[in-house]
Specification:
By secondary structure, the chain is of the alpha+beta class. It contains eight helices and six strands. 38% of the residues lie in helices and 16% in strands. Helix 2 packs across helix 6.
Length: 224
């Protein structure tokens, strides 16, 4: 592999400390309004908005710049209905088929979630995120990707942030196992389903549980 070419960093813009502090605080307040939503409107969302958010996610840092993510964006009602049907099969096994440990079910009980996932059909877009374990080269050989889970996780977080910033709401959904998504969406074996990100507008009467987030003292340690 040829050595990368390096150019001056001309995209960085330093800001005064006061402006930096204000920007950090404003962003914090923006993200504090983000909530996971389970009641979606079927109002359409322009594809161009989703594309820009995906491009924002694609700027995420990743191992060796391999960019091991694939985003399959589903808007077709029939395909969404099939995803819901297959996902609910796995969810029934999780909630009522003895697949989930009781400790995990107890942890979820206060949220009232169950095997029914109507949001998979109601929302205008499902973004199915795949993690690419290796790249298949033109000669059929494999080229391993590195830090795949970390890279795809970072990109997914940036995608959620971009969608929220654009004025939409999201839900992360992870039926287990998710391999049915490969066949349904025509993805190759080197791509592993990472999660389904549901995106759209909230229903007008949508509700969310009352929750709190840990304070800085419980999530961070400063060594100065």
């Amino acid at each position: 592999m040829p050595r990368a070419q390096f150019v001056p960093l001309d995209t960085y813009r330093e800001v005064p400390e006061e402006e930096m502090r204000a920007a950090a605080r404003d962003f914090l307040e923006t993200m504090r309004r983000r909530r996971t939503v389970r009641e979606f409107s079927n109002r359409p969302v322009p594809r161009a908005v989703i594309e820009d958010c995906l491009l924002a996610a694609g700027t995420a840092p990743n191992g060796a710049n391999r960019q091991p993510w694939r985003f399959v964006v589903v808007g077709d009602p029939a395909v969404k209905a099939t995803i819901r049907k297959e996902a609910e099969v796995e969810e029934r096994a999780f909630y009522t088929g003895g697949k989930a440990p009781q400790e995990w079910l107890d942890a979820l009980a206060h949220l009232g979630t169950d095997e029914h996932k109507p949001f998979l059909e109601q929302a205008p877009w499902l973004i199915v995120i795949f993690a690419e374990s290796y790249e298949v080269l033109e000669d059929g050989t494999r080229s391993k990707n590195y830090y795949v889970s970390e890279s795809v996780g970072i990109a997914t977080g940036m995608l959620i942030t971009a969608l929220h910033h654009a004025g939409l709401v999201t839900l992360t959904h992870t039926p287990s196992p998710m391999r049915f998504l490969n066949g349904l969406l025509g993805r190759p074996d080197n791509e592993r389903p990472f999660l389904i990100l549901v995106a759209g507008y909230p229903e007008e009467d949508a509700t969310v549980p009352v929750i709190t987030k840990k304070p800085i003292e419980e999530i961070a340690v400063f060594v100065e």
